[in-house]
Design brief:
- The structure holds two protein chains of two kinds.
- Chain A is of the alpha/beta class.
- Chain A has two domains: 440 residues, Amino acid/polyamine transporter I, CATH 1.20.1740; 132 residues, Rossmann fold (3-Layer(aba) Sandwich), CATH 3.40.50.
- Chain A has 23 helices and nine strands.
- In chain A, β5, α20 and β6 form a beta-alpha-beta unit.
- In chain A, α3 packs across α4, α4 runs antiparallel to α12 and α6 packs across α15.
- Chain A starts with 7 loop residues before the first strand and ends in a 20-residue tail after the last strand.
- The relative contact order of chain A is 0.11.
- Chain B is an alpha/beta fold.
- Chain B has one domain: Rossmann fold, CATH 3.40.50.620.
- Chain B is built from four helices and seven strands, in the order βαβαβαβββαβ.
- In chain B, the strands form two sheets. Chain B has a five-stranded parallel sheet with strand order 3-2-1-4-7, with helices on both faces.
- In chain B, a hairpin with a 5-residue loop joins β5 and β6.
- The chains are: A alpha/beta, B alpha/beta.
- The interface between A and B is medium-sized, with 26 and 33 residues.
Chain lengths: 685, 154
Amino acid sequence: MIGGRRPIQGRKPGDRRVRVERPHSALFRWTGPGQLTAKEAASVPTTATGRLFARVKALLLGRPLASEAELGERLSKKKALAIFSSDAISSSAYATEEILRVLILGGIAALAWGLWVSVGIAVLLIAVAISYRQICIAYPSGGGSYSVSKVNFGRRTSLIAASALMIDYVLTVAVSVASSIEQVTSAVPELFDVRVVLGVVAIVLITIGNLRGLREAGNLFAIPTYVFIVSALLMIVIGTIRIVVFGEGEGYAATLGHQLDESVQTLSIILLLRAFAAGAVALTGTEAIATGVPAFEPPEAKNAATTLAVMAALLGVLFIGLTFLAVNFGITHVEEPVKQTVISQIAGKIYGFGSIPFFLFQGFTALLLVLAANTSFNAFPRLLAILAIDGFIPRQFSFRGDRLAFSYGIIVLATVAAGLIILFQGETHLLIPLYAVGVFIDFTISQSGMIRHWRRERPPGWQRRLAINAFGATLTAIVAVVVTIAKAPQSFLVIALIPLLVGGMQFIRRQYDAQEKELAVRDEFIVPVNHREQRVVIPVNGINRAVVQAVIFGQTLATDVRAVFITEDPEQGDEVRKKWERQVPNVPLVIVESPYRALIGPFTAYLDVLDLAWPPDKPAPITIVVLPEYVARHWWDRLLYNQSAKRLKAALLGREHTVIADVPYRRGTLTGSTPPGPDASGPRT
Amino acid sequence: MPSEPTTGPSFKRAVVALSGHPNGQRLVRLVGELAKAHKAEVIGVHVVEIDWSMPLDMDLAARSDEIQQILDMAEGTAESVGVKLESVLLQARDVGAALVDEAVERDADLLVIGLAYRTKFGGDFAMGRTIPYVLKNAPCAVWVVREPIPEENS
């Protein structure tokens, strides 16, 4: 019968109906035979503190999203170019400066070599881009260097690639944000002193955005990326016309050329290589498209390859163009009285310092750099999630948060990147030596992986493809060595960090493997009926409602139930015994005197004695330690109660044949089966 | 004066009869989309007919996963079109009377009921007892939504 519900009378006599309650419907939904799906309400915290925390979290990060809310939106080439190229194209904002910073060490005339260094890097860019187009075609499911090396080389190499990638992503955030803040302080020098705070705030804002589930929204990325590209190209065109047609900067160039003849003999090859290594940061982010092929509209591989070519062409033009302008206008970095980036000086020269176009250009450059940082916030947590699924890092990294973002990965990335900004005081050029090393290691590993891929698969035209990747691998390997040596000793930090990360990941994997092996159940194993005996031991601190509830529960588990009272005062023990025998006559009480005032040790020792007393010819019994626990009403209450129970639990964890059962006593919940207060005559059952 | 094109006849509160037939999900989607346009409420009602030989308030519907699933799936379908569906589970002697009485009690201005197509015996629409009763007795507008006839029988 449906409890107490009366039929509702219809309009006509005899037409009656009963409304059936559906108590599950607020929390669950039946989605199939024997299958329930939890609704959002089922995840709502039950405590007041939990609800408050959830409300604050929702305010900050938004309401939780259901898994099905994740839409696989495909990207057109235009949107994909904006999304995936912000990292690569933004590096043109600081790559020129890095070259000039090195060349200036060879004297002002050495700056003229900047253009040739940038051309050399552009050639390298073409080689890398052509090689990565091959990866787009061969791995349409996303050819990150980790995936490519996992398939072609195995565990260790793929972990080296993953470690290098992780370092690369962290540094992308740190370098991009630092550079973005430098663009802002170049335009508004008054903010220079708070640059570190601004950098950290920028990272916090990007983090919150990503924890809210900020997707790589095409429109959001497209505007600043395309505005930057157009305005930078316009700047290059105007600047080139002023140099070539109107002869601006000619005097400077002539002087420079004259000086160059004299200085070239002294300009060492080492300096040029260092300049090349410094400018190689321009290539960072080139691999982004190859890793994101599945996000493209069909035909995915072809569209990704085309977008990669366009991106490389744009990056090459911007990089060479900006270096050309800097060299011809005699621009190099300025540190005093306030720091001014090279690109801001070029913008000032072309658009006019303090003009609206100048501020707009600086603003969009800063925004583009922030978006470049955001690409790492998408890629890094995904890489960690893949590694977590493969068992190389803790499994929590593969869990999606309330807003479907990989929250743990996002928080780790933000923390490390913010730490780097603070450590290096937001100085881009101090962070740069750490950068690019990992990138070129990655390039080399993925290209080498492709050589194996082509040799194994041998599709039509594989020899040509193999040659392209072999050329790319050789070139990037040489550059990786050059970059590492040229950026020493800081670059050695990265080189040292990679094996540490690889070792750490292998250690975690071994732990998971060992655990899996230990927990594995053979297919032919059938769970037998339990024939082992059970006994219940209840540590008590006297007679109270929590203890009585634990005793009642313990009696449902076994017939052998005993209470243990540990005391340092024999008189107190006698008093408890008298009371116990009168009020709990069915359960024997063991009093353990503890003259050394210890609690945990004597209790576990008593359990050991019980085990020793068990007949050796019988299987060891399961000892269930039932812990009466008082449930605190407030978070601060928790400090006052159950401390001994916590210590006991910690001591018993891992003890053989022992199970711990918590019996929580909640204030105000005692009715019926539990006893009344001390003024009542006796327990009610 | 020519009237403005609308997204269908307007209503404020619709009761949708859910029989458990697969056509029900189509019905919910249709009503849900219209309700969204008119910002109307949707109530999904499933009636379990109880034989006279058994007590009306017997514990039957609450224990059946299959019955609960009919309403839960309707809720899910409505949610997928962006509408909240209030689900009502009834036990009654007569489905038609229960539907009409529920619609009256909830002040619904529309009652939607599906008409299934039977493929057996050459194919036919089975009106049964419920639809004629609802058409005759419901004080509000009634839509009978016919299931599409399978291609080979048309």
